Amino acid sequence: MLEPKAIDNREPEPTALNTVIIGGGPVGMRAAQRLSDAGMAVTVLSAEPFAPYNRVRLTPLLAGDVQFGDILSPTIPSSEFSVITGVRATEIDRETSTVTTADGRTWPYETLIIATGSRAFVPGVPGFDLDNVFTFRTAEDAQALMARSFSARRVAVVGGGLLGLEAARGMQRRGAEVTVLEHEGRVMPRQLDQVGGDMLAARIRDLGVEVITGVAVREAIGDRQVEGLILADGRTLDCDTVILCTGVRANNDLAVGAGLPINRAIVVNDNMQTADPHIYAIGECAEHNGHVHGLVGPGYEQADAAVDHILSPVAGAGYEGSIPATKLKVLGAEVLSVGAIEQLEVRQGVRSHVYEDADAYRRIFIENGRLVGVTAVGKWSQAGKVQNAVQTDARVYPWMVYRFRREGLLWPDVDEAASDMPDSATVCNCTGVTCGRLRQAAREGANTPELLSLATGAGTVCGTCRPMLEEFTDAKGGFSAARYWKPLLALSATAMFAALILALVPRVPFPTGFQADNWREWLWRDNIVKQWTGYTLLGITVIAMLLGLRKRWRFTDRLGSYDVWRLIHLGVGLLAAVGLFVHTGLRPGANLNLWLFLSFVATLIFGAIAGLATGGDHKLREHHIGTAKKPARRLPVWGHIIAVWPLPALLMVHVLVVYVY
Fold this sequence. Notes:
Elements: E1 19-22, H1 26-37, E2 42-46, H2 58-63, E3 81-85, E4 89-93, E5 98-101, E6 106-108, E7 111-114, E8 118-120, E9 133-135, H3 139-148, E10 154-158, H4 162-173, E11 177-182, H5 194-206, E12 210-213, E13 217-221, E14 228-231, E15 236-238, E16 241-244, E17 248-250, H6 253-257, E18 266-268, E19 279-281, E20 286-288, H7 296-311, E21 325-330, E22 333-338, H8 341-346, E23 350-356, E24 361-367, E25 370-377, H9 383-391, H10 398-407, E26 426-428, E27 433-434, H11 435-443, H12 449-456, H13 466-474, H14 485-504, H15 519-525, H16 527-548, H17 562-584, H18 592-615, H19 617-622, H20 634-644, H21 646-660
Helix pairs in contact: 1-7, 14-17, 14-18, 16-17, 17-18, 18-20, 18-21
């Protein structure tokens, strides 16, 4: 069972002016966290008896995948921050700038943030007031369902949206026989089209959950407890438990009592201010430009906009609205939906293209040559990139459409690493955290997924982005430095210096007359010495070529890591530069000898550049030069390989010409 637990049992004196936040949900806590970090005094009034928790994670809690402690919001370490649980705000007095709670206390505020969220909507269907009819919205609802699961045998979930499907899976995993009822023609009708909804429904049925779509519930029957449902088409569905997941309604009562303008929710401007400039509203209880968002991601964006305005009233562009985005696993099936799919299906001038195979369904919506929406069921390696493309109004070219219709891909099929993604790309859909914010937090010391979650809020809701957080922390903020990168840079720079000497420094002159004891005479005119230096250079070159193939021979892993052998390869290359100087005296010769000399020099130069690009890769990528999949070293490596290829043939011909004939 869940146990009520407050983050902070200290009761602040309600006479001290501070920022008061009504509502301890994820959105309210986001605003509280940021205000507290800025040094402001914050008091959160939460009507629930539990410490603030991530509401989205109630579904794995119901399924038994996590414990209640796992879904609690992080504690904010500040003496100026307090969460008061189990106190319901009953009145806002705008004249005295106070909030009154049900226990009779008043809480003065300088700034008030209403983050009361929404409540489960219960349709006016006869019989929905019977016992064993539940909603699924709060921790108390989850607690009641967990208790009921011990005796529930046949469960009917009314509502085939995301919450209904997750509730169905949770009860099914607890041993109940579950049926999902959706009055529209498909499950997740806001996020999926008909084909995608049908595919998802088929996968849900494969898991043992029955799905009935296109029919409404007319009545719930039973004497005192629910015993069944009568459907609009006359069928009767036997059940002993009903879970209502039929939407939500904004909690506006406090705002109505305070005389604030209300439509479907509390009307706010771009700064999330209500008609009273000292009162803000964020999350599901706020209506911005006629839109009320039911996802936590937009709520976080609204919280940030409100806090930005509170901290600096003249700065910032404010909240500009959100594009609906859902990217998560629904009963094990990956679902992606970005944009207002229902509206896009009927909007004039919007064209759509479909890709479908046995495992996946994908549909993109294009308006005026730009990607405005996407819906998909099944694994898609480009899901994150597609979502970012919709949110940035990216252009889609004809060849991209052709590739999509043929392969289901908008871009070439390359797995996207964390460091490949732009700062604007969203990593955590639930909290709206971008790559840029994660990189900044990682550079500031958040070097584990847990610290990264605490610093940014990413991964604290549904948890599907946790692997990406691990990639960011493993890569030290998204840009991984090569092992031994400092020695690698030093050797590469030395090799580059040697190669430039070979290419640019004039040849060493011979003595003007014969001098038997002159080292230049001995080194470059003595045939025996020339043979020894030539064969030495040949041996060094062969060793360097073999080391270049080392990573192709996996059995050599026992001899040392690739990073170590890369340094050895560079060292041998540097020896080859010295050997070339000793053998030639910087005299490239003519014809074949000239080509051989130039091939050596080109090999050394491109190898040194590749080493510099490898050692400095993490710094280059910080300046947006190269990516994990297309590193800056790629071109010089290919130049190095192309320059190496002629060497064996040129060396063979050189040996035959000079030493045989």
